[in-house]
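<amino_acid_chain>
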Amino acid sequence: MSGPDNVRHPGWADGVEGGPERLYVVTAGRSSSSAPVVLDLVTLIVSRGRPERATQPEHTAILRMCASPLSVAEISAYMGLPASTVTVLLADLVHGGHVEARAPVPVAQLPDVELLEAVMHGLRKL
């Protein structure tokens, strides 16, 4: 899957992304959201609507790129922002009802070997 193009904001030097001052401004000085939202790197995020005019540019970028579900880690990578900063932004969007956070699809568990053997023996008896 290829990522969204042109998500990095103009004027940000490659690898610098505006430095810590920019991150402070993006999150309004917060290190966590006021709303208790549990997000980890594999939580899937999907947009529930379109960005509004007064939406912060980073929120707008997230809403546009999450038309299809993306993990927090993918959003962080595409935006060139630390996961902690993206988590604050996402918590704001979840709290506002703009995005939905979903647990990733669980990995299928291996079937019980004894059960499979019992089914196989039962089929052979038919």
